[in-house]
Amino acid sequence: MQPNIFPIIISITIITALLAALWRIGLRKLKSYNSPILGKIKVLQKYNGEKVLTTNSYIQGISTEKDSIKLSYWYCVAKQAGDFCKRVKDPEVLMLGLGANTIPNLISHLNPAAHQTIVEIDDYIIVEKKFDVIIIDIFNGNPPYVDIKSNHPDFITSLLPYLKKDGMVIFNRPGHTESVRSDSQKLENYLSALFAKTKSFDIKDPRGFRNTVITAHMKRQKLS
After folding, report:
1. How far apart (Å, rounded) are the C-alpha atoms in residues 50 and 68?
2. Of 62, 54, 49, nearest to 32 (Cα)?
3. What pTM did the predictor assign?
4. Does 1.10.1270 match the CATH number of domain 6-62?
5. Could you read off the pLDDT of 138-184 as tens digits, one per residue?
6. What's the CATH architecture for 68-223?
């Protein structure tokens, strides 16, 4: 007689859900304030010592001391930028969206030679300068959590004058639903018409995050 595995499946599902929830629970609130632009911002510390920055309960960045950071989309973005910059003399990186400084911090560890210019939401004008890597990591605290304007051709075209001929752009986008993943695929398709090389990474972080990281480099000749 076959054992009834239904209770076992239910138990495993409950345990998995509890473990996933535990990753997201901040046992100690270190700081909290209201931003007129982003909303409720909190800095939390988890049971394992990991620090988390959230806006309206949406995680924007984490501390980088734990080895598990290597399984995250933050690390994927930083690794792509850091590796690319190793092939460039005096690399310049433009980062749009600071978040909790997770990606810039990782880049500085992976490639200390990379000079980073970081722009956070503000009335800010980018100086006339060429960059080897431009990272678009513009999130907010409300669904779909990514700034949809950063997916528009006009926005992407506006970045190209600041990118060196053989430079790389990196987009970090949410991947938690089929809809946003489809939107990211459309973005990659558009980038493939502008750049010779594109690649996407489906990052499934054990903390429960899922993001799509898209890279594109080597502008096509018609854009030079």
Report:
1. 10
2. 54
3. 0.66
4. no
5. 876 666 666 667 777 888 888 888 898 899 999 998 888 888 888 88
6. 3-Layer(aba) Sandwich (3.40)
